[in-house]
Write a structure and sequence with these properties.
The chain is an all-alpha fold and 139 residues long. The chain has 7 helices and no strands. α2 crosses α3.
């Protein structure tokens, strides 16, 4: 089997599906590496397949580390609005041979992810705003 050149594969993906910016795919590859390192540490260095939910958590952590309070804005610029979009990117990469999957992996693994405001904006809100956000509204 011939190894897939990442840049050429991205060109093919973007020619077929241009919903997401090229940088979104580069970020996905980096976030997957980041997530595999976390999973490897948790499994005493043993490499194993990363699930969709683990990848979503790794994406969240890596985005906050890389972009801080700008994470949601960066994703919006790249065309990413929700966790399902991450799944579309992953499966575009799977279909072209950049990533592997198991029989259990589906796009549905990314359906019940997190809300982008909760994941990428709230960690940077001032405490006062967080307190008003959690107070029940009086009727």
């Amino acid at each position: 089997m011939q190894e897939v050149n990442f840049d050429e594969a991205l060109d093919q993906i973007l020619a077929a599906d241009n919903r997401f910016h090229r940088d979104a795919y580069l970020f996905m590859r980096e976030a997957l590496d980041f997530t595999q390192k976390i999973v490897g540490r948790e499994n005493l260095g043993k490499v194993r397949h990363v699930t969709g939910q683990e990848l979503l958590d790794g994406l969240r952590q890596y985005a906050l580390q890389q972009f801080g309070p700008m994470a949601a804005t960066v994703f919006e610029e790249w065309g990413i609005r929700n966790c399902q979009n991450f799944g579309e990117i992953v499966f575009n990469m799977v279909e072209i041979g950049l990533l592997a999957r198991t029989e259990k992996d589906t796009r549905d693994d990314f359906q019940n992810g997190y809300d982008f405001t909760d994941a990428f904006r709230k960690p940077f809100w001032p405490q006062e705003k967080l307190k008003t956000e959690t107070k029940p509204v009086a009727s």
